[in-house]
Amino acid sequence: MRTPSPSGQIVRAQKDNYRNIPAVVFAALLSLFAQTQYSSADDGVTAYSAKYSKASTETVDHSVWTRMLGQYVSPGAHGLNLVDYAAWKAADHKNLKAYLTQLQGIEPRKLARNEQFAYWANLYNAKTIDVVLDHYPVQSIRDISIGEGLLGFLKKSVGAGGPWKAQILEVAGKRLSLDDIEHKILRPVFKDPRVHYAVNCASIGCSNLQTEAFSGAKLDSQLNAGAKAYVNSARGISVEDGQVRASSIYQWFQSDFGGSEASVLDHVRQFANPALKAKLKGKTSISSYGYDWSLNTIKRGS
If we measure between CA atoms, which residue out of 212, 237, 223 comes closest to residue 186? Predict the structure, then answer.
């Protein structure tokens, strides 16, 4: 989920959702959300997932996922890949569920490191699409809450809902949520900031859902391509009148990019095209952050 780490910022709620909520009530809701948004309990997920096979040549068949991505994900304007959720739900949702069942039957610790990264990223993205299709049509993935009852209602009321904490997957006997995959496996185990260009939260503000599955053999080039696409889009970084505007990802997860705005910009320069790199020359701070939680869907008739 595009939520903060325990030391990060609270996700900013959409103003239209809380404009009429009394200040005291809103403060209480935000406090509740902050306390429940991220669990740092040591449940062994990270330690379990840190193991991999250096000698393994085993690969996972992601051909079904690649076929669906190629069919339902389309490059759109401004470097944004859009998803045809309506067509996917009508024609291929069962095949997606079958692919997810296949992935959950795999023991990821038997895979080599890059193949394991690809496995987790594909599992995260495929399950995210599955959740959206289960509830489609929706305006935003944050309109979806699974098994949270009153808490889910309260979070949605301040624009902070979402399915990320529900344990909706099981791998090697361990129940997992999407947050577990991102925050307890991909980020702490692989310690690669390009994780943020691999996982997709079904939102316009997120990095692109790619048109092919991740694979161990192509992982490095795929992550670099995702980084370049995001950094060089207005969703990632833009400079206007000398002021740097950045995706909230770089604020929520600043620690993954070196721990300061200057280090974030150093990271960004690695993937910036010549025009953006020139605009970033000498910049050490970011003026503002933003994120668009609208569903990354193809709109019919547009």
Answer: 223
Question: Rounded CA gap, 280 and 150, in Å?
Answer: 45
Residue 8 maps to a domain: no
Judge whether 297 lies within some domain. no
Express each pLDDT in 289-298 by its tens digit.
Answer: 999 999 999 9
pLDDT of residue 78: 87
Whether 206 has a pLDDT exceeding 60, the answer reads yes
Looking at the domain assignment, is residue 70 inside a domain?
A: yes
The two tokens of residue 197 are 């260009």
Looking at this protein, which amino acid is placed at residue 40?
Answer: S
8 A C-beta contact, residue 97 and residue 116: no
Q: How far apart are CA 61 and CA 2, in angstroms?
A: 27
Confidence of residue 6 (pLDDT cuts 50, 70, 90): very low
Would you state the torsion angle of the CA atoms of residues 177, 198, 249, 291, taken in this order, to the nearest 10 degrees? Answer: -90
Q: What is the pTM of this model?
A: 0.86
> Residues 13-31, buried b or exposed e (16+ Cβ, 10 A)?
beeeebeeeeeeebeebbe
Specify the pLDDT at position 93.
98
Q: Residue 112: CA atoms inside 13 Å, Cβ hemisphere, count? A: 13
Residue 167's nearest CA partner among 217, 127, 125, 216 is 127
> Which residues constitute the domain of residue 273?
15-290
- For the residues 263-286, what does the mean pLDDT come to? 98
Q: Please tell me the total count of domains within the chain.
A: 1
Structure tokens at 166: 């529900």
- Say how far apart CA 301 and CA 83 lie, in whole Å: 15
Q: Which amino acid is present at 242?
A: G
Q: Note the residue count of the chain.
A: 302
d(CA 12, CA 296): 19
Residue 66 lies in a domain: yes
